[in-house]
TrEMBL record:
Signal peptide: none annotated. Keywords: Oxidoreductase. It comes from Fusobacterium ulcerans 12-1B. It comes from the Bacteria. This is Prephenate/arogenate dehydrogenase domain-containing protein. GO terms for molecular function: NAD+ binding; prephenate dehydrogenase (NAD+) activity; prephenate dehydrogenase (NADP+) activity. Coiled coil: none annotated. The keyword Oxidoreductase applies.
Length: 290
């Protein structure tokens, strides 16, 4: 499906877009890119991350591309695709890195010409920094790649997405529906970010920086957050995330009641259950590192 003659165009050369570009170049593919930041394009060209790039007037690059990868925020991607699909090569495949799918992937497939195929995917990878200068294709080696097809996708399109995940070097490649993806992401990613942000905002804890241990640092690592992107992602998945917050609050109150009532056995049961559930993730990590 994917061959060495295929040319990739990445719009949005940030942390993930840059990592995609590095992985594709390392594997011998031609990579073009566009970004609103001229410094990002210049850096990528100087460091051989892309073959050609532009801040504006990049229509000729789009026209040469067999694959278009959107590294844009979800709503910005929709507008960009609407505006630029007139330049797409017939048979072009489009994919994305969006953290929310329902209302995004189906909307794109609703207006995109039948000459092209949009197959949505989500690289479950990232860092607490941004920009192509901080991009690193090695983050994919320990990460999951989720393909989220709809009934409008072809078997060839799904096969393409799987091959792309393999080329990029993801540890694990799976497939979910749009609904399954957003429910999953509401719990494992969005809720965890809400918890980290809430913990940092519980009180002014900056004076504890000289005393804190690894547990606090580990729990709040993802509290360093892009306020524009994550506000958008949370609102796009509002219904699911609100339910996850409510469920977490109920479990937190459950623990509080056991503590208030000095229910030692009840707390021990919760500790044992959480330990056993966490072990499942440890075993999977070990298995996938072999």
């Amino acid at each position: 499906m994917i061959n060495k003659d295929m040319k990739f165009f990445i719009v949005g050369l940030g942390l993930l877009g840059g990592a995609y570009a590095k992985a594709l170049k390392k594997n011998g593919y031609t990579v073009y890119a566009a970004d609103i930041n001229e410094d990002s394009i210049e850096y990528a060209l100087e460091n051989n991350i892309i073959d050609e790039g532009a801040v504006s007037d990049y229509n000729s690059l789009i026209e040469k591309a067999d694959v278009i990868i959107s590294g844009l925020y979800p709503t910005a991607m929709i507008e960009w695709l609407k505006e630029n699909q007139k330049y797409f090569k017939k048979g072009c495949i489009i994919t994305d890195v969006s953290g929310v799918k329902k209302g995004i992937a189906d909307k794109v497939q609703g207006f995109l010409s039948e000459d092209f195929e949009f197959i949505s995917s989500h690289p479950m990878a990232g860092k607490e920094v941004s920009g192509v200068r901080n991009s690193d294709e090695n983050i994919f080696k320990i990460a999951n790649f989720i393909i989220t097809p709809t009934e409008k996708n072809t078997s060839e399109g799904i096969k393409f997405a799987r091959e792309l995940g393999e080329i990029l070097g993801f540890r694990n490649i799976t497939q979910l529906s749009l609904e399954e993806h957003d429910k999953m992401i509401g719990f494992v990613s969005q809720l965890t970010h809400v918890i980290a942000v809430s913990l940092m905002n519980t009180n002014d804890n900056t004076h504890l920086v000289e005393y804190t241990g690894d547990s606090f640092r580990d729990l709040t690592r993802i509290a360093k957050i892009n306020e524009v992107l994550w506000s958008e992602l949370f609102l796009l998945n509002k219904e699911i995330l609100v339910k996850e917050i409510d469920d977490f609050a109920a479990e937190l109150n459950n623990f509080r009641e056991k503590l208030v009532n000095e229910d030692v056995e009840g707390m021990k049961k919760l500790f044992i259950q959480s330990t056993e559930r966490r072990k499942l993730f440890d075993r999977k990590d070990v298995k996938n590192r072999k």
